[in-house]
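U., I forgot to send this yesterday:
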Amino acid sequence: MELSFPRYLLAKQSVDDRALNRVVLADLQNALATWPIGQALRVVEVGAGIGTMLARLLRWGVLPPQVEYILVDEMQENIDFARNWLAEWGKQNGFDAQTGEDGLRFSAPGANIQIRFCQADVFDFMRAEAGFGYDLLVAHAFLDLMPMPESLLSLFGLLKPDGLAWLTVNFDGVTSLEPVLNPALDALIERLYHQSMDLRPSGGDSQSGRHLFGHIEQAGGEIVSAGASDWVVYPAKGQYPAEEAYFLHFILHFFENSLEEHPQLDAGQFANWLAGRREQIRQGKLVYIAHQMDFLARKKQPV
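Result:
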């Protein structure tokens, strides 16, 4: 199967829709409900991928009528895809979508959404934009890839005092694949997979969710709300909804890339394990669960 990262991001929309913690989301929506009429909410999303979170926030009516939204991602492929996909999404969802040199503009009765795209390394972006004073920071399925806690301190530097940070789908140390193929091998692969997250040269933490309670405080934030945002993918009558079979194949791709040629894994056993899991997807039998955490935090006023 030929794999595409933008297609994976499209495929996981329905998985994320179910996973996002509704209490944390409601607290974000309530916090934005009193946003001053006529004043643009300035939003920065880091690791923004192809723009599915912006589409979701608009679809769910979370954002106020006036928004300036910047999507930051280091992959040019994602940024290029986002430009085209979001423009088409806007047209299909009731917006007048106008394309300009600096991004997109969505307009509708009572709504004006200015969208800007930035292809950049997030650390370069944080250095360039420190002190800009964004109103809302969004980081979705991203912080568990970053060196902590120093990265969060820099991210909070993008916010104005009292600015909000919505930090979603932060992995927290539990992966489950059912039915079991080989109890001992399944456990070993899960342990080594989590370990690979902790050993990434670029940073990462397989228990990022629970550690964010402390990291947010260290970064000068206070937690408004927190809750679980588990991915739960399962078939109904042998069929996966939407494009979730593709999503599962990509999860196995992550396993394969992370653990191929691992010294603690027999290559033949691992290849057979991957083949067995892929066959479970084809048969509509694989159940996948990943435990994650969502947070809404507020940047404290300087003392």
